[in-house]
């Protein structure tokens, strides 16, 4: 029998929200699914409460299910300005296109300078395979 290499362990999903003077930034990474839904929903609600432009950094997202993209879609419904997705990973770009949420957000391929920020909400959730 041929030896098989083990599948890589899933990368835990993380959700962090940073408040700055003129905007808020939601930083997401790893696998975002039902295990991270509550933390993501809390962070999105907090971001909306600031009533400032919202940046969503998804460049390190390795997996996103429908619950995560649906939660992020709330930003388009509850903010006055279009959310900005910074350097979305391929999986996030795909979901933005398929769900047509990409038509309601701005996508940029660069990250502006990030001034000093205050972490408002941070969560890390380990997902299981």
UniProtKB/TrEMBL annotation:
InterPro entries: MlaB-like_STAS, STAS_dom, STAS_dom_sf. Residues 26-127 form the STAS domain. Pfam families: STAS_2. This is STAS domain-containing protein. It comes from Georgenia yuyongxinii.
């Amino acid at each position: 029998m041929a030896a098989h290499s083990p599948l890589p362990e899933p990368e835990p999903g993380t959700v962090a929200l940073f408040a700055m003077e003129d905007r808020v930034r939601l930083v997401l990474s790893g696998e975002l699914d039902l295990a991270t839904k509550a933390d993501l929903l809390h962070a999105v609600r907090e971001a909306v409460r600031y009533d400032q432009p919202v940046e969503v950094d998804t460049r390190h997202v390795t997996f996103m299910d429908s619950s995560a993209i649906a939660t992020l879609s709330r930003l388009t419904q509850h903010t006055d300005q279009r959310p900005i997705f910074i350097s979305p990973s391929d999986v996030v770009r795909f979901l933005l296109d398929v769900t047509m949420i990409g038509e309601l957000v701005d996508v940029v391929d660069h990250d502006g300078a990030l001034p000093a920020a205050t972490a408002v909400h941070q969560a890390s959730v380990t997902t299981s395979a």
